[in-house]
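Recall that a protein's primary structure is simply its ordered list of amino acids. Everything else, from secondary elements to tertiary packing, is in principle encoded there. The following example makes that idea concrete.
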Amino acid sequence: MDALSPEFWPLVFVGFLAQLIDGAMGMAYGVSASAFLTTMGHPPAFVSATVHAAEVVTTGASGLSHAWFRNLDRSIFIKLVLPGMVGGAAGAYLLSSLDGNLLRPFVFAYLLVMGVLLLRRASRRTEPELARAPSHALGGAAGFLDAIGGGGWGMVTTPSLIARGVPPRYAVGTSNAAEFFVTLAISITFLFTFDWRRFDLVIALLGGGVIAAPFGAWIAKHVPPRIAMTAIGLMVMGLSAYGLFNWWLSSHT
């Protein structure tokens, strides 16, 4: 049997932390995993391909669960999923076609913004009720950004739907169900456009996530959501700022 890659066990740890975060607050698996992987020095296309391949399993299970409990709004689902798949595929194609070193600072900047959005959401006590139907542009933009940054679909779509007056139950359920198809489209695009076959690393991410699942549930029960969201937002911002700083140092030496 071939020896495990040196990256295997570090990615088990990354998967553990990312799932711990996601289990504690129901979002940010992709953003957290991508922040860790990008900080470890992996190129953006590799990061996004690895994270989304792992997320195919997790988002599929989540989507089926929400469908079973009837947490879906079909009209919103259609408006999100079709543009999201197109935007995600376009983002994955662009990411696999460009130089990773050129994209790295933009990915770090995107993750930094995601950290700020987490802090903003943690500080808001109410969501404005805007009686507007969600636009197709929301799904397309969220899918594109999700592919480019290695995550962020839920962080973009769910708060936007709630802000537009969609009940949280349907906002979360519909967003999660649509995410499976967006993630699948991104993963298939990477499979055909990017020389990536590291399924061992996907298994590492999933393995760490399985171990972390009960601990994340415990945290969700005992730690207030705002505290968890604030801590995770600061962590993502810190990793992103650290990555940007290292990129700046390497580009000026």
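The chain has one domain: 11-246. DSSP finds ten helices and no strands in the chain.
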